[in-house]
Design a protein that fits this description.
0% strand, mainly alpha
């Protein structure tokens, strides 16, 4: 589940709310609803994506490069749509966009459970990607609309609730796989996303007249204005380019572990431990995410997590293999936990109040294109043998180290 954002000057901070949330009780309700949504969708998402690589490899019989293409298609659809959809969220309204996202992703998981060939997998990838493109700007626009003092804590709750599901999801996925195989697992994920859709109407009503009632021409102008505003903000574009590898570092952590030869059980253990670490560091990170060193540390630790996987072989026995895998999971969790809040805070502060969705969409678009290209390269390298696998892991580490060395400015 991916972000891109950072802090800003006092003038921008004072104008921060992109969604009119006027009282403490209303803000608490926004955070509570989003936390419940995160738990529901996280259970569905991580239950499936903790085991989808093993399913595609063992049940469908795909090679690593083809698996990378399937997963990359989802990323390509999701993040290519984020550029217009992020701005469209500003016009449509975040709650409606969130409901639509949940319905579309539920359909994608249902198709994935029944797919056994290229056509079905491609359809599932498109639907899951489109749902993600709608969901992330919607949820994060609501968080960006909180008052500046409550926003860091709100985002911390958002991350913790999502990663509680990330801890429980792979284990729940194992149980469903044992009961009915991957089709039952995918159906359970679809049901979880449908449950999340009915939570969005519980958000407090906005007092201002919603833009969602504007004409299509007015909505189109809003989208174009948002994209143009982002393109003119050179400081933000530089920041977004530097942190673009962040999504690749997050998504590939779940891909390279099974490709390294580890089975479903050890992959689930890796993902659960990494998610637990992400959640554990959020109370510390919530009050410190504006410090530039936090983001750089997150990028460095994410890169180090891939280096820790280089000497491991899932087909080999020995306690050091287990220790190495768990150590890599801790590094990965620390990296993701320290990296994501500063990126979100940066985008929320760079963005004008009425264009938060556009800024979120643009930063996620750049990150997603990087993840798509990088995912294809990683899959292709793994197909060449052990030397290619080592090169892929080293390349991922280098991207994290390089982004940290570029010293991304978290304040405009």
């Amino acid at each position: 589940m991916n972000v891109s954002n950072a802090p800003g000057d006092l003038g921008r901070v004072a104008a921060a709310p992109a969604v009119p949330v006027e009282s403490a009780s209303r803000e608490r309700r926004v955070v509570a609803v989003l936390a419940a949504v995160q738990v529901a969708i996280g259970l569905g998402y991580y239950a499936v994506f903790g085991h989808v690589v093993v399913h595609l490899r063992d049940d469908v019989g795909l090679a690593a490069g083809t698996i990378g293409l399937v997963l990359g298609t989802r990323l390509l659809v999701q993040y290519s749509l984020l550029l217009p959809v992020g701005a469209l969220t500003d016009a449509l309204g975040a709650p409606r966009a969130g409901m639509l996202a949940c319905v579309v992703r539920a359909a994608g998981f249902a198709v994935l459970g029944a797919a056994d060939g290229p056509a079905g997998l491609a359809t599932a990838a498109v639907l899951v990607g489109a749902g993600g493109a709608l969901y992330h700007p919607a949820a994060q626009s609501l968080l960006a609309g909180l008052s500046p003092g409550r926003r860091p804590g709100g985002f911390a709750v958002y991350l913790v609730s999502g990663h509680i599901s990330a801890v429980l999801g792979p284990s729940a996925g194992l149980a469903l796989l044992a009961l009915g195989g991957f089709p039952l697992l995918a159906a359970g994920a679809a049901a979880a996303w449908c449950a999340a859709a009915v939570l969005f109407p519980l958000l407090p009503a906005r007092r201002a007249r919603p833009v969602a009632h504007a004409s299509p021409a007015s909505a189109s102008r809003t989208v174009l204005q948002g994209v143009r505003a982002v393109a003119r903000d050179r400081g933000f574009v530089r920041f977004a380019v530097i942190v673009a590898p962040s999504t690749l570092l997050v998504t590939e952590a779940a891909t390279v572990v099974p490709l390294r030869g580890f089975g479903a059980g050890w992959t689930a253990a890796f993902l659960c431990l990494a998610a637990a670490v992400v959640a554990a560091v959020q109370p510390w990170c919530a009050s410190r995410s504006e410090r530039p060193g936090v983001l750089r540390a997150g990028l460095l630790l994410s890169g180090a997590g891939f280096l820790a996987l280089v000497p491991l072989d899932g087909d080999a026995d020995g306690p050091w293999q287990v220790a190495g895998l768990l150590g890599a999971a801790v590094l990965t969790g620390l990296g993701q936990g320290l990296m994501q809040p500063p990126i979100f805070q940066a985008v929320a502060r760079y963005a004008p109040p009425e264009q938060v969705g556009a800024y979120l969409g643009a930063s996620s678009f750049l990150a997603g294109m990087t993840a798509f290209g990088g995912g294809l390269a990683v899959g292709a390298l793994f197909d060449t043998g052990s030397g290619g696998a080592v090169a892929a892991l080293a390349g991922l580490a280098a991207l994290g180290f390089g982004a940290a060395a570029a010293r991304p400015r978290t304040a405009p």
